[in-house]
Structures are given as structure tokens and as C-alpha cells.
Design goal:
The protein is an all-alpha fold. The protein is built from 13 helices and no strands. The relative contact order is 0.09.
Length: 214
């Protein structure tokens, strides 16, 4: 969703020569959201909160609800990717003034019926009921894949293969927070099945990833 937020902005930032410089808020908000995402995924909660507050402040200065709403949806999407199913309160406060695609994406993140044709292309299959590992693996972008997996999990449709794919995706990117969340989901499933050896392996992996967290 962040890429959508700054699609138009990228054109302005790439300007040079005699073209007017882009407003400071665009570069400031873009940089803060980039740093927010990195901090959140690494598990640095305090730094993530500070960067998001900066990004939101810069976007709010425009008075454009749609821009702020997209930033809030970026935050909600990262939470869903990390199995942190909290209310998307920041967006809901802006819902009535947000464009239809943002409202559809918010519904999608909540695992509620959403207008698939208004969603980013990589999420349409899941919105239309596909939630198997093959459908998720077809999503090229790792973050979009994790978000889609989180939506499937939230809808109680995640198979063991989906859990494994999500854990592998987070691991390959070095994203500690979602990795720990998906390993935890795998651990709970292993314990429910009475798979003692698998549960022990997952606990060791969780301990390893947790021990290196700052």
C-alpha cells in the first residue's frame, strides 16, 4: 500500500533541471514511512512508533484524508503480516473521507468481503476466496505475500503449508517480527497435534531469533 501512497510522489521526486522542487513533506513522509517499515519488521517498536508519527504528521499537513488513510493502512498491513490483529483505528477515523480503493483494502485486511477489483492486483485472488499456498506463492512481492497470508490466517483458512510459506518468506527477508509471529503459529499447531519433536525444533528456532533482538 505504501507504494500506492507515493506513486504520484515518485514522479515529483525524480524531477530535475528546471522543474520545481517537490514539497518537503513528500520526501519527509516517504523517508519516515520507509524507516517505520524497517523498524517495525525488525521488532524495534519505539523507533517504529516515532517514525510513523513523523510520517503521519507530514501527511496530515496537507489536509488530504486519503494520504493519511493510506499511511494508516500501511501500518495495518504490517500488523496483519505479523499476525497482530488489532483494530485499524487510525484508518477507521478517516474512512468516510477515504477513496473507495482504500476502504476496500481496509475491509480486505479485516478479512471481510471486499471489492476485489478495487484492490492491488496481487491481493485479488485471496479476496476472491483463494487462500492456498500456491495462490500465495504466486505473489511476487514478499510483503504483499505476507499480508495476504495474514488475511488468510485471520479468516481461519490458513493451512500448515500457508504457515510454512509465510515463515519462509519472513525468514528469507530477515524480518524478525513477522518471523516470530508465524513460527509461534506453527508452534501452537504442532503442540495441538502432539508433534513433540516439531514443537521442540520450533522453540529452538524462536529462541534463536528472539535472542538476537535488540
Amino acid at each position: 500500500m505504501k507504494r500506492v501512497v507515493f506513486m504520484a510522489m515518485a514522479v515529483l521526486l525524480a524531477g530535475c533541471g528546471n522543474k520545481p522542487l517537490a514539497p518537503d513533506w513528500q520526501a519527509n513522509a516517504h523517508g519516515a514511512l520507509e524507516r517505520y517499515e524497517k523498524a517495525y519488521l525488525s521488532g524495534a517498536a519505539r523507533a517504529a512508533d516515532a517514525e510513523f508519527a513523523l510520517a503521519r504528521r507530514e501527511l496530515a499537513a496537507t489536509g488530504e484524508a486519503g494520504l493519511v488513510a493510506r499511511a494508516e493502512l500501511t501500518r495495518c498491513a504490517l500488523q496483519v503480516a505479523s499476525l497482530a490483529f488489532e483494530p485499524c483505528a487510525g484508518f477507521e477515523a478517516l474512512r468516510q473521507d477515504s477513496p473507495a480503493p482504500e476502504r476496500a483494502y481496509a475491509d480486505y485486511l479485516l478479512a471481510q468481503p471486499a471489492a476485489a477489483d478495487l484492490l492491488p492486483a496481487q491481493h485479488r485472488a485471496v479476496a476472491n476466496g483463494r487462500g492456498d499456498a500456491a495462490a500465495l506463492n504466486a505473489i511476487a512481492d514478499p510483503m504483499a505475500r505476507l499480508v495476504a497470508a495474514g488475511v488468510v490466517f485471520r479468516a481461519n483458512r490458513a493451512s500448515p503449508e500457508v504457515l510454512q510459506l509465510a515463515a519462509d518468506t519472513a525468514s528469507s527477508q530477515g524480518w524478525r517480527r513477522p518471523l516470530l509471529a508465524w513460527l509461534g503459529a506453527q508452534l501452537r499447531l504442532a503442540e495441538q497435534r502432539g508433534a513433540a519433536e516439531e514443537a521442540a525444533r520450533l522453540r529452538r528456532r524462536i529462541a534463536l531469533a528472539s535472542a538476537e533482538a535488540s
